[in-house]
Amino acid sequence: MAPVSGMNRARRILLKLSGEALMGPDSFGYHADTMAGFVAQIREVTALGIQVGIVVGGGNLFRGATGALSGMNRATADSMGMLATVMNALALKDALVQAGVKARVQTAVQIAHVGEAFERDAAVRELEDGCVVIFGGGTGNPFFTTDTAAALRAAEIDADLLLKATKVDGVYTADPKKDPSARRYDTLNFDEAISKNLGVLDTAAFALCREQKLPLVVFNVFKPGALKRVVLGEDEGTRVTP
Fold first, then answer.
1. Which H or E run contains 155?
2. Reduced to 3 states, what is the DSSP secondary structure of residue 173?
3. Going along the chain, which residue ranges are E strands?
4. What is the mean pLDDT of residues 128-154?
5. 154-206 pLDDT, tens per residue?
6. For the chain, what is the domain count?
7. pLDDT at 66 exceeding the cut of 90
8. Helix 32-46, helix 74-98: angle, nearest 10
9. Residue 175, pLDDT score
């Protein structure tokens, strides 16, 4: 399949992978076959020479917003959620390394002997050396989602594409699970996505992407080969442009 008009092969990407995705069909933790599928797709992309950074969520272990709803102090709950993302970063790193892919963890929450403290120049050097860099700890601050962390890290490492991995194959006019007439957008611009209230990213993340003119692709990570097709500029998912 030929690349879509105006879409080129990516040089360096930032992949936003939710914690919930790591659960697969399970209700908590990690699903081995699902994790192996993600690793296979990441390995396929790195084999093309594409540099890969990853921000991983923590929802399979703990969600700060959920903890806050149960009466916990929001800052405390978000700190616990950030620790969950570090655990997921370590799990993903281990799976990648076992598959023969070089990987490192950098974390905004400094934990000695667990991962390197986030440092932009070091992250870029590791990416240029062919290492997958997994960013844990969110932004390091409460009240910010991992969507915002992904947009921030993408801007910091000068990624030319931000990828949001989901369970659906793009952005729809309505929830396709509830509305069979929902239509998938092939492309959108940021202003359209905001005016239509499509909920592609949280507000802070969206504002950062628009300000930095950082294109975004929303795609189904559970679809075999989807990641490769996205980074090669093929017709996969929904592309949101500045």
1. helix 146-156
2. coil
3. 12-17, 51-56, 103-107, 116-117, 132-136, 161-166, 187-189, 216-220, 238-241
4. 97
5. 999 999 999 999 999 999 999 888 999 999 999 999 989 888 889 889 889 99
6. 1
7. no
8. 70
9. 87
Which residues have CB under 8 Å from 8's CB, separation 6+? 233
DSSP-assigned letter for residue 198: -
Q: What is the domain-level CATH number for residue 102?
A: 3.40.1160.10
Query: Residue 8 falls within a domain, yes or no?
Result: no
Backbone φ and ψ for 3, nearest 5 degrees, come out as: -60, 150
Burial class (CB in 10 A: 0-12, 13-18, 19+), 36: middle
Distance of CA 38 to the CA centre of its chain: 12
Assigned domain for 121 exists = yes
Does the residue 29 lie in any domain?
yes
In a domain, 27, yes or no: yes
Tokens of 125: 């050097």
CA–CA separation, 27 vs 216, rounded Å? Answer: 28
Residues 6+ apart with CB under 8 A from 25: 31, 34
Measure the CA–CA gap between 234 and 167, rounded to whole angstroms: 19
Q: Say what the pLDDT of residue 7 is.
A: 56
DSSP states along 43-103? HHHHTTT-EEEEEE--TTT--HHHHHHTT--HHHHHHHHHHHHHHHHHHHHHHHHHTT--E
Radius of gyration of the chain (CA): 17
Question: Alpha-carbon distance 66 to 186, whole Å?
Answer: 33
Range of the domain at 76: 15-226+237-241
